[in-house]
Amino acid sequence: MELVSSDIQFYFLCSLLSLFSAFIVRSIFKKPSSTPLRLPPSPPSLPIIGHLHYLRPLLHKSFHHLSSNYGPLLYLRFGSYPCLLVSSPSMAEAIFKTHDANFAARPVSPFDDGLLFGNSGFVTAPYGNYWRFMKKLCITELLSPRQIERSHTVRHQEITKFLRQLIQSADKTEVVDVSALLTKLTNNNICRMVMSTRCSEQDDEAEKIRNVVKKSFAMVGKMCLADSLGPFKKFGFWFFSKEAKEVNTTYDELLEKLLKEHEEKARNNIIGVKFDTEDNNKDLMDILLKAYHDENAEFQITRAQMKAFFVDLFLGGTGTSAETMQWAIAELINHPKIYKIARDEIESVVGTSRLVEETDIPNLKYVQAIVKETLRLHPNAPFIPRVCHEDCKINGFDIPRNIPVAVNVYSIGRDPTLWENPNEFCPERFLVPSKTETNKGQNFDFIPFGGGRRACPGKNLAYAMMNITIASIIQCIDLKVIGEGGNGAKVGMEEAISVSLTMASPIRCLPSVYFNTFDA
Ligand code: HEM
């Protein structure tokens, strides 16, 4: 089944960002409290609603407007619910570096374990032993450079399949939904990495999981709504509880089946995988099961935590990367000169007889710059939700404990004092050595993956997937938009009303083949 672009609305970032949105909605029902603290500056507010009237459906645009007009550190009040808006590299540095441990928590999930994204998840986990254990496992094993290297064959196979599909459509002069194909490609990459090829193609468990996760995301929306009912929220939760339980049971059964299969195969050593042995065929489920069965592990993870972690990976790894690639392709179609420069670079590095490979990427600086420039202009998480653990001071201002913080990634990426012509798509700016340094985490003017100890652990995998996919498309395919404007028709760059930065409409194009490596 083909996925449509709206399918990518389900993802883990929503569990991050919708939590934050839920806080804003809930704020209306909270009682006001006065404070003698020296708080950061505030824009003019209205009685009772505070700063709610500044908010528009595109929340990141509202935040951008607020920070551009009133400054890089703002104390906002939505109803009686306060929040800190952080919109400059130096203020982001205060959150991600100077006070890193103090801001390492996220707003508490209003949901319990009755929903997939409940309190067992890693993304929403409190900053404590469970989070520390999983973070270490992510860095040393699950999302380590070695594991990413191991999975490069999966990406190669999936990209080959993806290109063949585009070539077939080109032969038939058939319009394709590039957004849907990119989503499917990313989903397949992540699912195969997590559960490996042993996930049978016929039964298509990966597809079933995607569907149930999608349903559960819709449930999150409903639960947010229920949560906003203040004194009546228990009624709201009760109203949706049957549906939530059904979604949860389906997911639980599916995951349990997959886990049992992995355990069974490990016991019988059918595929050469034993949890306690080194094996290059291990997928993420094998690695996590090894930690689960290890009685001497620093932390005993539960089965529920394992299952919730897979949800985090499916959601965190798919929508984010697929949506970023959609923006990149849209920008490339709208900037044919940039497309040509990148293609020339690929030709000069790879030649004209083979498909670009991951080992070529370090030499494809311009392609890498295209991906970074896309993340600067269209960061999938336009603001990052954190919470202040203990009272502290930033820039001489008092920051009260428990206050939610939004780090304004979108505004930092478009700040005219940091970026020349900030609204223009110009990959060249990332070829300058000082901006290349940025990506080593030295500065905080480019933070699409967040920062500090809670930064995205999937960053290297995301770059690996995005760089090779974008390079392969540029090398092999030309994409023509069908619509008004004839040959020069552009892709519409409108943003969807969503907590992540998503395109409003799918990219529908007529592909034509520039270079076909599969001819031979
Ligand atoms: C373009 C792609 C991606 C973007 C833009 C992105 C962005 C982010 C951001 C902004 C955060 C919050 C960071 C913070 O609080 O400082 C995050 C967290 C996270 N991301 Fe990513 N991400 C991407 C891809 C991935 C991939 C491929 C995976 C794994 C398969 C992944 C897994 C996670 C996880 C597990 C967290 C939670 C970390 C924690 O709470 O400690 N992400 N991501």
From TrEMBL:
Residues given in the record as heme binding sites: C456
Subcellular location: Membrane
Any Pfam family: p450
Cited InterPro entries: Cyt_P450, Cyt_P450_CS, Cyt_P450_E_grp-I, Cyt_P450_sf
Highest taxon above the source species: Eukaryota
PANTHER family, per the entry: CYTOCHROME P450, CYTOCHROME P450 93A3-LIKE
Sequence similarity: Belongs to the cytochrome P450 family.
Protein name: Cytochrome P450
Record organism: Corchorus capsularis (Jute)
